[in-house]
From TrEMBL, chain A:
Superkingdom of this protein's organism: Bacteria
Keyword Transmembrane attributed: yes
Pfam families: SpoVAC_SpoVAEB
Species of origin: Thermoanaerobacterium butyriciformans
Residue ranges of the TM segments: 6-22, 29-48, 54-71, 83-112
Protein name: Stage V sporulation protein AE
Alphabetical UniProt keywords: Membrane, Transmembrane, Transmembrane helix
Automatic annotation (TrEMBL), chain B:
The protein's name in its UniProt record: Stage V sporulation protein AC
Taxonomic superkingdom: Bacteria
Keyword Transport carried by entry: no
Protein keywords: Membrane, Transmembrane, Transmembrane helix
Coiled-coil regions listed: none
């Protein structure tokens, strides 16, 4: 059951992005920026958590979930450390994903070469 | 002259009628299916870590790391861009697409060197994402602090 919910929630989040790409002038890069920002705002209001409770990975795997983690991390750290938490919490919460992106991104960029264009 | 303009308009109308229908529906279906499948892969790992005793919140970090690994690896061997050609947003929006946006330009610009080629091109798209994401999260934190 959780696989069906993750599929539907994740799929619908992608469908909204697809409609935006096809119907507006938004490029995929702008969609990613839009989604991470939107995710952080929804996370700030605590709205996104409800979607995660329902959709699981369907809500955390899209970039909206990354934005939500940033905002939730900032709020959590503010509760613990005060105002300084606003500056430490976001990156602390997402450190694993960002570090993995830097590390694996660099590694595989070095190891592999782009396929020759046909 | 005026007749020409009219004729051109007529031609346009006719041509429009026979133009292939926009592929929006097809794109939407592919985005839904591929996006959903990628999230299910994430769900598989999420369930795995939770069954090993992690909380849902703790488990999201290793899941993100694995998905980023898969996204960059599949981009490296050239499969991810093949998927992206028909999956559109379905392959862009998940965090695997974020990894793809790092590896694809970095590989492409390797000939410009390992500093300004690979290392700086990695952040072509990831850079703006981090800037806006972290920036927004700081504002959220500050707002929370002052309104609390």
């Amino acid at each position: 059951m959780d696989y069906i919910r993750a599929f539907v929630v994740g799929g619908l989040i992608c469908v909204i992005a697809q409609i935006l790409i096809d119907k507006t002038k938004l490029t995929p890069a702008r969609i990613l920026v839009l989604y991470v920002t939107l995710g952080a705002i929804l996370g700030g209001f605590g709205i996104y958590k409800k979607l995660i409770d329902f959709g699981g990975a369907g809500a955390t795997v899209p970039l909206l979930g990354f934005g939500n983690s940033l905002a939730q991390g900032a709020i959590k750290a503010v509760k613990k450390d005060g105002i300084i938490g606003a500056f430490t919490g976001g990156l602390t919460a997402t450190a694993g994903g960002i570090s993995a992106a830097v590390f694996f991104g660099y590694l595989f960029s070095i190891i592999f070469n782009p396929k020759t264009k046909k | 002259m005026e007749k020409d303009v009219k004729k051109q308009q007529e031609y346009k109308d006719i041509a429009q009628k026979y133009e292939p229908k926009p592929t929006l529906i097809k794109n939407i279906i592919w985005a839904f299916v591929v996006g959903g499948l990628i999230c299910d892969i994430g769900q598989f790992f999420l369930n795995l870590f939770v069954s090993r005793g992690m909380s849902l919140e703790q488990a999201s970090t290793p899941v993100a790391i694995i998905m980023v690994f898969l996204g960059s690896f599949l981009t490296g061997i050239g499969i991810y861009d093949d998927i992206g050609r028909f999956a559109g947003a379905g392959s862009v929006v998940p965090i695997t697409g974020f990894a793809n946006s790092i590896v694809a330009p970095a590989m492409e610009f390797k000939r410009e060197g390992f500093v300004f080629g690979v290392a700086s091109r990695m952040f072509n798209i990831a850079g703006p994402v981090i800037v806006y994401g972290v920036g927004t999260s700081i504002i959220v934190g500050l707002v929370y602090y002052f309104l609390k």
